[in-house]
Amino acid sequence: MKFIWHKFDPSSLKVRLTLGIAIASVCSLGGLAMWTGMRMQQILIATHKENIKYIADRFADDVRIYSDMVSLEEGTQRTVDNLSGNNKVLWVKTDSGEVTAKSLVLQDKAIADILLPLNNVPPIPHVQDLQGRYWLLCASPLEIDNNNLGKLYIGQDITDDQVMLLSLMRSLSIATLIAISMMTGVIAVYVDRSIRPLKRISQITSNISAEKLSEAQVHLDNAPREVKELAETFDEMLTRLSESWEHQRQLLSNVSHELRTPLTIISGYLQSTLRRGNNLTEIQREALTTASSEADRTVQLLRDLLDLARVDSGGMHFQLEPIMVNDMVKEIIEMAGQYSDRIINLESSANPLIIEADVNRFKQIMLNLIDNAVKYSPAPNPITLKIEQYQNRAQIQVCDKGAGIPLTQQGRIFERFYRLDEARNRAGGTGLGLSIVKTLVEGMSGNISVRSQLGEGTTFTVCFPLA
Ligand code: ADP
């Protein structure tokens, strides 16, 4: 049902064009067929009408000629007999309703019962359907030499002609319907073929991502000129977008690089001043501590931005070498201990696990996850790192007992700049850490996932293939 609705989506260009052209052809072909039918009927009846009018006009003169030889009644009857025949019947009826002369056919009671009782017949011939037969009828006053003879009725049975005309009109309607359906079918196919290049453009453009901007090109063969022009405009726009994207990346990379060095120096000076400044007042120490931690935070942000710029420009390289996960994680826990006094436990399987990874990037991943665990779980809750073999992979888990992450947001925390609701997220951060971690893990053929329960804690699991 959904499929059919999709095919007949009234907002689609294909349906609109097909319907529009189909309606136009129904109107024009239908109108033409109707006009032809009406015209044919007019021509057919017009001939009979002329004939009847001619008889009505000469009737009185004919009676007059006969009445020179016979009586007026006799003359009327002879004229009636003379002009009857060929599906034509005549009768004369006085004002009191008495039939004084009639065609021989009217001796037949069946026909007489239909025609003779008719009154109110108009003087201009018109078609009447009388018990399944079509009659062209007219009546005009008959007065000869000041003698009022009543009315002369003339009837012409046109049933055969009318039946033929109706069957002709039926055939015409069927032919028109067939022509319209065939035209609609052909139009639908034609419209579908004509808008295929447009569909192709939308297909190609839907697959273009920021990373592939420079390679993206909309190539169309055999497309109409207008669509080709559209594709060319698209290509030009993609080139401009790619250039400006490249500029932006370059700018981000340059700015991050240029700012990182002076800020690292500032941070170093602040820390050494804090260490050596024995005569600092409490307020000065507080101000310097705040400045130092803000400088550190900014250096971290710049480092993240630089990493992102490298990832985007494809400049992130990994120097893979075999590393012993168990020893490396122990070393990382010791490093983390220098920045935080949180207790970090290690649960490790006995057998040593070796993976192929870039040592510095591996450390960056683990320190980032440990840093998050410390930031987003309250002291003194400990952090636990677990190492185990899972099938042919080394699995490292970083577990905390923090507030947890709502299920709806668990899929989004790996997006750039995504952070949970500020109110629940008081620890400072940039929202870049996890997206870089994910890129690094995947860059070394691993994967990362998160499991979290609100109020109970969060576990990040990183897996790498064993070497
Ligand atoms: P940030 O610099 O904000 O820490 P991240 O990319 O590292 O950026 O993390 C994105 C968001 O994911 C964080 O803002 C935080 O809300 C949430 N998050 C990350 N790790 C944890 C965790 N261990 N417990 C709870 N929330 C977390």
Describe the structure.
With 467 residues, this protein is of the alpha+beta class. The chain has helices spanning 2-7, 13-67, 72-83, 109-115, 159-206, 225-276, 282-312, 325-339, 359-375, 407-410, 433-443; strands at 88-93, 99-102, 126-130, 133-144, 147-157, 321-324, 344-348, 354-357, 383-390, 393-400, 447-453, 457-465. The protein contains eleven helices and twelve strands. The strands form three sheets. A five-stranded antiparallel sheet has the order 2-1-5-4-3. It has three domains: 13-171, PAS domain (Beta-Lactamase), CATH 3.30.450.20; 225-312, Signal transduction histidine kinase, dimerisation/phosphotransfer (DHp) domain (Helix Hairpins, Orthogonal Bundle), CATH 1.10.287.130; 320-465, Heat Shock Protein 90. The radius of gyration is 50 Å and the shape is rod-shaped. Residues 1-5 have low confidence and may be disordered. Helix 2 (13-67) runs antiparallel to helix 5 (159-206) and helix 8 (325-339) crosses helix 9 (359-375). Adenosine-5'-diphosphate binds at residues 372-373, 376, 400, 402, 405, 413, 418-420, 425, 429-435, 458. Adenosine-5'-diphosphate is lined by residues 372-373, 376, 400, 402, 405, 413, 418-420, 425, 429-435, 458.
Short description:
The protein is built from 11 helices and 12 strands. With 467 residues, the protein is of the alpha+beta class.
Q: Which features would summarize this protein structure in a list?
A:
467 residues, alpha+beta, Beta-Lactamase, Helix Hairpins, Heat Shock Protein 90, five-stranded antiparallel sheet, five-stranded mixed sheet, 11 helices, 55% helix, 18% strand, rod-shaped, disordered N terminus, binds adenosine-5'-diphosphate
